[in-house]
Amino acid sequence: MSSVKVYYTSVSGSREVKQRQEEVIKILDSYKIKYELIDISVSLKVLQEMRMKVSTPKALPPQIFNGQEYCGDFEMFHKAKGNKEILKFLKME
């Protein structure tokens, strides 16, 4: 059983971040993949947790995990989409 988690922000002044988040969610929904959204804007602790997990001090959402295993960021997700490898990217196959 997979437990896909997407770190995102419900508060962003960046149109690019919003569009990227929306695209990830739209694609996960189209694949009927269950996922949990983790909002980094609720606490600095959650933002720091996301950045620690991806080992990048300035990482921006969306960041995607399967359980505790890091899958990648939007760029990696977008590349997997283009290669029709979403399930592989999500470590579900």
Automatic annotation (TrEMBL):
Pfam families assigned to the protein according to its UniProt record, in alphabetical order: SH3BGR (PF04908)
InterPro entries per UniProt: Glut_rich_SH3-bd, SH3BGR, Thioredoxin-like_sf
CDD domains: GRX_SH3BGR
Top-level lineage group: Eukaryota
Cellular-component GO terms for this entry: cytoplasm
Signal peptide positions on this chain: none
Protein's recorded name: SH3 domain-binding glutamic acid-rich-like protein
Family: Belongs to the SH3BGR family.
